[in-house]
Amino acid sequence: MRRPRDDTPGIEALFAELEGVYRDADALFAGWTCPASTECCRFGITGLEPYVTSIEFALVQRAVARNGGPLQAARRALPLDGNQGLQERRCPMLDASGRCSVYAARPFGCRTFFCARAIEARKVPHKRVLELVRRIEQIAARHVDGGDQPHRFGKLLERG
Ligand code: SF4
Q1: pTM for this structure?
Q2: 63 CB less than 6 Å from ligand 1?
Q3: Which atom of ligand 1 is nearest to the CA of 102?
């Protein structure tokens, strides 16, 4: 992932707005935890990955830059036991201890427990989740033209 230079006018205000949505999302899912298998950060295992708007991706890129750049290979997560890792498509932000290295800036989709085991999280009213999605899309639309069109996170990471 390349180090970003996002000079969009008002970008800090957009980031602040997005972080406000993230706080609301975290509050909505408060009290629910996961077994931290890290499988959801291995897109090839779940066959699922977050869809991310431009502004969400820009915030991730800023967090990577603030961390001093992308995780070095030696600090990245290894394949899970019994898996050669070839098909895991691990997120490059997943570190060797199984933690997200950009946790505070992780995209909306990483906060909403799309994991099949997330039975409790699915009790959160869909309408409330959609309201947050709409707010993010509105912020993204003010970031770049077409910014309200979410893209597959893994694809964006490959592009850098
Ligand atoms: S950004 Fe963090 S939580 Fe999201 S897939 Fe990557 S490592 Fe996992």
Answers
A1: 0.88
A2: no
A3: 2
